[in-house]
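Hi Y.,

Following your request, here is the sequence exactly as I used it, all 292 residues.
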Amino acid sequence: MEIAEMEKEVDVDKILEDLQNKEYFVKSDNSCDVIILKIDNPAFKLKNKKSYNLEILGKSMLDWVKLAVCDFNISEIECDISSSIFDVVKPYLKNSKYTMILYADTPLVTKNTISDIVTYVVGKGLKVCKLSRGYVFDTEYLKTCEKVYSLSTYSFNESDFMPVINFAELNKVTAILQHRILEFHLNNGVQLIKPETLTIEADVVIGSNVVIYPFNELRGETVIGDDVTLYSSNTIISSIIFNNCNIEKSYIKNSVIKEDCNLLPFCNIYNNSLVNKGNTIASVVLDHKEIK
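Below is the corresponding structure, written out as tokens. Let me know if you'd prefer a different format.
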């Protein structure tokens, strides 16, 4: 079997862009703007990283919150843990009827919960609605008020607003988000064997008739095609596996495996490598190389 140096680099990012079924959201609801407060929690004691940028399954905590409100116009404000929200947000208020204030440390919040909140507030015509962690204000009311007194909290899926305030809470939230991701793939017909042993990040795309055995890690912008079987103990990072492949105990990063390939144990394939259609390989190290 010939292994040749690649004449040109495989553009994995371009292929990923063409293959992934990305959802493009239209900001169609102008009744509410969203302000996300980015507070660096000193309890984490991180070096060169803000706590709201802690990564959970391929997305930062801030990114998870932004995903939940991607239908709305979003402003991000970095502020101190002791800051008054009224002083902080007023310069950022716009002309929408309502302004929702959220925190970047609540990565479990979902689009459905946000939709329920907006529907409730708009339907009731409320001036202010206090959430488990956050607020919704009538924007004109917020522009003039200095303080809100004796405000009852409205409960909308309170668990969605669980704040990540330490590493113990981070582990809990990671487990919940991983469960949601696995449930999504199971509901789409992916067969997951012992799913509790799997790590599948948020941006992974998995096709039809796929079987994934224990101790697989799928990370980054990975695409798994149709009729693929991932036997135990693979790590696949930001790579594309085309249809009808079988892979076992291999490491693949930033690379492409074309159709009808069999990767037997101990293949290490990385740095924009390419395995062309119909190959069966084992115990191979490919560093920016191509198998014809």
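Residues 181-291 form a domain with the UDP N-Acetylglucosamine Acyltransferase; domain 1 fold (CATH 2.160.10.10).

Thanks again,
Q.
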